[in-house]
C-alpha cells in the first residue's frame, strides 16, 4: 500500500512540474458550429457542407464540425446571436428587421444572390397556362411577410392581375393544398422542385419575371466583429472555397450535400444543375442593386419602411 501511495504522489509531483505547454498541446480547440438558414432542406447550405467535408475550415485553423439551423427568418437571426460563434448565413430580410429593432450587426458577405430559383407550379392537367390565367384564382404563398408573399405581390403588379392569395404555412403545406385543389398554384424551389417536378408543371419562374434579389447574407454581431476580425476573415475564406468547389465539382458536391442533407444524390445534383446558371451562390461580393431590390420588396409587404443605410452595417473588409 505504501509503495502504491508513493508512486501516486510521485506521479502528481511529476505532473505539477511538467511545463505548461504540455497541457496546452493536449487540449484540442473546442469544436464550434455555424448557423445556416434552412440547412438540410434548401440549397443555401451547399458551400458550408463542402467546406466542412473538404476540410476548408480546418485549413484555416478553425474547428467547425456542424451547423445550427432553423426554418429561417428571425429564429435564425436569434440563433446567430445566441451562439458561442455568432456568425451565420441569414435571410437578408431578417437582418434588416433586426437592424430596425436597434440590434448592432455587421454584414460580412453576400450568400445567395437571387430569388430566381423560386417558381410557382400547377398540377400537370391544370388549365392554368399563363400568369394572366391566375387572375381571380386562389394562389398559395408560404407565410405573411415572407419572400414568397412579396414575390407574388410583385408578379401581380407587373401583370396587372389580382389573385386571392392564401398563406399556406410552408412549401409542403402549399403543395398539399395544390394537390387537393384548394389553390391553383403554389410556390416551390430546389431541392424540393427536383424531388417533385415529375408530378407538377412549372407555371412561371421568378428568374424570368423579376430582377435579382439578394436572399441571404453572412452576418455577425458588431461586438464579435470588433474583437474577432481574423476569425471572421477565415470563416469567409472557407465559405468562398466551398462556393468555388460547388461550381467546379458539381458531381462530388452533390454527393457531399446528399450525405449531409440525407437526400438522394441524383436529386441534389439536379438542384445544383438548376441553380448553377443563376450563379445562385455568391462568392461574397456585395451586390447593392440586388440588396436594394430585396428591400423594395420588403417595403411592399410592410416589413421595412424607408430605405436602408447600408453604410452602417456592411463591412467589405472581411472579403479581403
What are the main properties of this structure?
single chain, five-stranded mixed sheet, three-stranded antiparallel sheet, D-Maltodextrin-Binding Protein, domain 2, 320 residues, disordered N terminus, 14 helices
Task: Present the secondary structure layout.
Blueprint: H1 2-17, H2 20-26, E1 32-36, H3 46-53, H4 56-59, E2 64-68, H5 74-82, E3 87-91, H6 92-100, E4 105-110, E5 119-122, E6 138-141, H7 147-159, E7 164-167, H8 171-180, E8 186-188, H9 192-196, E9 201-205, E10 216-221, H10 222-227, H11 229-248, H12 250-261, H13 265-275, H14 288-300
Parallel strand pairs: 1-2, 1-3, 6-7
Antiparallel strand pairs: 3-10, 4-10, 5-8, 5-9
Helix pairs in contact: 3-11, 3-12, 12-13
Tell me what the structure shows.
The chain has 320 residues and is of the alpha/beta class. Helix content is 45%, strand content 15%. It is built from 14 helices and ten strands. The protein has helices at 2-17, 20-26, 46-53, 56-59, 74-82, 92-100, 147-159, 171-180, 192-196, 222-227, 229-248, 250-261, 265-275, 288-300, and strands at residues 32-36, 64-68, 87-91, 105-110, 119-122, 138-141, 164-167, 186-188, 201-205, 216-221. It has a five-stranded mixed sheet with strand order 2-1-3-10-4. A three-stranded antiparallel sheet has the order 8-5-9. A two-stranded parallel sheet has the order 6-7.
Amino acid at each position: 500500500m505504501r509503495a502504491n501511495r508513493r508512486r501516486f504522489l510521485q506521479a502528481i509531483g511529476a505532473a505539477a512540474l511538467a511545463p505548461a505547454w504540455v497541457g496546452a498541446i493536449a487540449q484540442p480547440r473546442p469544436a464550434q458550429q455555424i448557423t445556416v438558414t434552412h440547412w438540410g432542406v434548401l440549397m443555401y447550405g451547399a458551400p458550408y457542407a463542402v467546406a466542412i467535408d473538404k476540410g476548408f475550415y480546418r485549413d484555416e485553423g478553425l474547428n467547425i464540425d456542424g451547423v445550427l439551423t432553423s426554418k429561417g427568418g428571425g429564429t435564425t437571426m436569434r440563433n446567430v446571436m445566441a451562439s458561442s460563434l455568432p456568425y451565420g448565413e441569414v435571410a437578408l430580410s431578417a437582418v434588416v428587421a433586426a437592424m430596425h429593432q436597434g440590434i448592432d450587426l455587421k454584414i460580412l458577405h453576400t450568400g445567395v444572390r437571387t430569388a430566381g430559383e423560386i417558381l410557382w407550379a400547377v398540377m400537370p392537367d391544370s388549365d392554368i397556362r399563363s400568369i394572366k390565367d391566375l387572375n381571380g384564382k386562389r394562389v398559395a404563398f408560404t407565410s405573411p411577410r415572407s419572400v414568397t408573399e412579396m414575390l407574388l405581390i410583385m408578379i401581380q403588379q407587373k401583370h396587372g392581375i389580382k389573385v386571392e392569395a392564401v398563406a399556406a404555412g410552408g412549401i409542403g403545406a402549399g403543395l398539399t393544398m395544390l394537390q387537393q385543389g384548394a389553390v391553383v398554384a403554389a410556390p416551390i424551389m430546389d431541392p424540393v422542385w427536383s424531388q417533385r417536378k415529375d408530378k407538377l408543371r412549372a407555371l412561371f419562374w421568378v428568374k424570368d419575371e423579376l430582377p435579382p434579389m439578394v436572399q441571404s447574407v453572412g452576418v455577425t454581431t458588431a461586438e464579435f466583429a470588433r474583437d474577432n476580425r481574423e476569425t471572421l476573415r477565415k470563416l469567409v475564406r472557407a465559405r468562398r472555397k466551398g462556393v468555388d468547389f460547388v461550381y467546379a465539382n458539381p458531381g462530388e458536391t452533390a454527393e457531399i450535400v446528399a450525405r449531409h442533407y440525407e437526400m438522394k444524390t441524383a436529386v441534389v445534383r439536379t438542384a445544383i444543375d438548376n441553380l448553377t446558371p443563376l450563379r445562385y451562390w455568391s462568392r461574397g461580393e456585395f451586390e447593392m442593386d440586388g440588396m436594394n431590390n430585396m428591400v423594395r420588396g420588403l417595403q411592399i409587404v410592410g416589413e421595412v419602411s424607408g430605405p436602408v443605410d447600408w453604410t452602417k452595417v456592411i463591412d467589405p473588409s472581411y472579403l479581403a
